[in-house]
Amino acid sequence: MKNHKLLDAIKAEFGLKNDSALVKFLSSRPPTISKIRAGKLPITPDFILLVHDMTDWEIKRIKSFL
Fold first, then answer.
1. Could you tell me which residues come within 8 angstroms of residue 10 by beta carbon, excluding any fewer than 6 positions away?
2. How many domains does the chain have?
């Protein structure tokens, strides 16, 4: 799996041990996170809003990881 700055930042800040915990935290689906990591799925505006809702991070901060 490739590193992905946004996903890794979320994991680090919220103490998530792996992508499975990240999936649960974001209320997402495993294939979505896997495809984002593999570069097969872009970060969409809907995903940015999901991250904002779940982390309470500003959109500007989220975009800084992209």
1. 16, 22, 25, 26, 51, 55
2. 1
Structural domain containing residue 21:
5-64
Residue 19, pLDDT score:
95
Closest alpha carbon to 59 in 48, 46, 44, 43 = 48
pLDDT of residue 10: 98
Average pLDDT on 24-50 reads 95
Tell me the pTM.
0.91
For 57, residues 6+ apart whose C-beta sits below 8 A from its C-beta are: 51
Domain CATH code at residue 28? 1.10.260
**Close Cβ partners of 36 (under 8 Å, ≥ 6 residues apart):** 4, 7, 42, 43, 47
- Chain-centre distance for alpha carbon 16: 11
